[in-house]
C-alpha cells in the first residue's frame, strides 16, 4: 500500500476512456484499491478514480462515512468501491453545486449534475452493486465516473463567474489548497 502521486489537469492520462476490469478479487486489484484508498484519505478527498493515479481502469472509490473537512456542509456518503460503473439518470432535473477535484488543486467551480441517479457496477469480489441515490451522493458518483471517460469537472462548468480559487471563494475552509 502506498500514497500515490495524483495526476493534475493537463496530463493526457486524465483524458483517456478507461478500460473495464475483467478479473475481480485479484491481488493486483486489491493493491490498486488499497492505493486509491490511502491516497484519497491522505488528500482528504471525497473520491478518487484510478485514472487520477495513472491507472487506466474503470475503478472509483468515494465516500468516507463521516463529514469530509474539504466539504464540511455536505452529508456523509458511505465508503464505496465501484468498478465498471453504469450511471442512469432517473430525472431530467439537474442542479448546480460546488465541486473541487484533487487533480485540479486550489480551485472550485459550480457544476450542474443530475439530482437523481441509479448506479450499477461491481464490488472488488465481482458482486453486483445497484443503488438509487440523490443529492450530494449522486453528485460525487457523477464526478468520479466522469474521470473514467476523460472528463474533469471544469469541462462541465457553464458559468465561469462561479469558478475560482478555493481560498478566495471559501476563506477559512480546511485544506483550502486542494
Ligand atoms: Ni476529481
Regarding CATH, which class? Alpha Beta
With strands numbered from the N-terminus, the spatial order across the biggest sheet is 1-2-3-6-7
What is the CATH third-level topology name?
Peptide Deformylase
Q: Could you state the order of secondary-structure elements as H and E? A: HEEEEEEEHEH
Outline the secondary-structure elements.
Layout: H1 27-42, E1 47-49, E2 59-62, E3 80-89, E4 94-99, E5 107-114, E6 116-122, E7 128-134, H2 135-146, E8 163-165, H3 166-169
Antiparallel strand pairs: 1-2, 2-3, 3-6, 4-5, 5-8, 6-7
Bound molecules: nickel (II) ion.
Nickel (II) ion (NI) binds next to loops.
Concise overview:
The chain has 3 helices and 8 strands. It has 178 residues and is α+β, with helices and mostly antiparallel strands. Strands 1-2-3-6-7 form a 5-stranded antiparallel sheet, with helices on both faces. A 3-stranded antiparallel sheet has the order 4-5-8.
Amino acid at each position: 500500500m502506498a500514497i500515490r502521486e495524483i495526476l493534475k489537469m493537463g496530463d493526457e492520462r486524465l483524458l483517456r476512456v478507461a478500460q473495464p476490469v475483467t478479473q475481480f478479487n485479484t491481488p493486483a486489484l486489491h493493491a490498486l484499491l488499497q492505493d486509491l484508498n490511502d491516497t484519497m484519505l491522505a488528500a482528504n478527498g471525497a473520491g478518487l478514480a484510478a485514472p487520477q493515479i495513472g491507472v487506466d481502469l474503470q475503478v472509483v472509490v468515494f465516500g468516507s462515512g463521516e463529514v469530509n473537512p474539504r466539504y464540511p456542509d455536505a452529508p456523509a456518503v458511505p465508503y464505496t468501491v465501484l468498478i465498471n460503473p453504469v450511471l442512469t439518470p432517473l430525472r431530467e432535473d439537474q442542479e448546480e453545486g460546488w465541486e473541487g477535484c484533487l487533480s485540479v488543486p486550489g480551485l472550485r467551480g459550480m457544476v450542474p449534475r443530475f439530482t437523481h441517479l441509479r448506479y450499477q457496477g461491481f464490488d472488488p469480489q465481482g458482486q453486483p452493486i445497484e443503488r438509487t441515490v440523490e443529492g450530494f451522493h449522486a453528485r460525487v458518483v457523477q464526478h468520479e465516473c466522469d474521470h473514467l471517460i476523460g472528463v474533469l469537472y471544469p469541462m462541465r462548468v457553464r458559468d465561469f463567474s462561479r469558478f475560482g480559487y478555493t481560498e478566495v471563494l471559501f476563506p477559512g475552509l480546511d485544506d483550502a489548497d486542494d
